[in-house]
Amino acid sequence: MVWMRNVPYHFHFQWHCKSASLSQATVLANKTTLPNFFSPKTFSSTSLPKASFSNQKQNLESIDDSQKETLILSLGSSKRRKLNLSVLALLINGSLPNLSNNSILAQELELARYTDSKEGFTLLTPSSYAKVDKAGATVLFEEVNKGSNNIGVVVTPVRLASLGEFGSPQFVADKLIQAEKKKESTKDAEVISVAERSGHGGLQVYEFEYKVDSTRGGMKRIFSAAFVSSKKLYLLNITHSDKTESPLEAHTRTILEEVLNSFDLAPVT
Question: pLDDT at position 108, please?
Fold first, then answer.
């Protein structure tokens, strides 16, 4: 059994109103056997999905020109269509082999690189978000004038050498959703996707997307990523409102996915 070091049993890192909850540290600190809340359809197949943009590229390559035109016309509002079309054109033409490291795309999406040299991690952040101080957070960015939409990172010492020692991505996702459902404020929680990718130097990175319906803020879409390096657990949590009356826009989703995919160890210089 693997236990985290120096992390209280009920460790919670929470942001409410101008904060969103991040309870992954509790989940990873308490590896206990809990009932499976999910049906077989909840998770993707055993073969875990690649980053979403790669899947989009493969799907685009398999459709004909008329279908591509329909897809283009359906993208976003007219206000954001120009940007969506430019990204889609790159995908269709196959000229965007690695979106996570593509500086041109980051500029198009108005993303800036943030690196914490002390803790040794890096990620992209939207220009519409501002860095704020919050107890318990290694770093926290909030959307200006809408702090409930935020991006936070927590770094915690552990005894793990890698996430694989704790469990599979699906196992961790199971624990995350169980933790969400135990909160009094949670009305419902559902896993959308689970993935694994390689980070800097072959680092094992888990990615999760799930939605939570809460009495505190309504429906939220959450993107999370986690990795372990040098006996430290790195957790990224991206929370964004996804209410029925104002659902998450395609353009905003693209930005948040790029932030998610950018979370990695900072290269040693």
Answer: 74
* Structural domain that includes position 209: 13-34+111-265
**Within-domain flag for 239:** yes
Strand partners, 186: 214
Q: Could you give the number of structural domains in the chain?
A: 1
Residues 6+ apart with CB under 8 A from 10: 26
The C-alpha atoms of residue 58 and residue 229 are separated, in whole angstroms, by: 32
Between 77 and 175, whose confidence is greater?
175
Q: Answer yes or no: is 129 within a domain.
A: yes
Place of tokens 């996804």: 242
Query: Quick one: pLDDT at residue 217?
Result: 86
Residue 134 lies inside a defined structural domain of this protein: yes
**CA gap 16, 184 in Å, rounded:** 14
At 266, list the tokens. Answer: 């900072």
> Cα(257)–Cα(238) distance, rounded to whole angstroms?
9
Q: Is the pTM of this model over 0.90?
A: no
Using only the alpha carbons of the chain, give its radius of gyration: 18
- Please tell me the total number of residues recorded for the chain in this structure: 269
CB count, 10 Å around CB of 80? Answer: 15
- Closest of 179, 238, 171 to residue 206, by C-alpha: 171
Q: Which of 258, 261, 260, 248 is nearest to 111 (CA)?
A: 258
pLDDT above 70 covers a percentage of the chain that reads: 60
pLDDT, tens digit, for every residue of 156-205?
A: 999 999 999 999 999 999 998 999 999 999 999 999 999 999 999 999 99
Average pLDDT, the chain: 74
Q: What is the CATH number of the domain that holds 152?
A: 3.40.1000.10
Residue 15 tokens read as 């942001």
Is 164 inside any structural domain?
A: yes
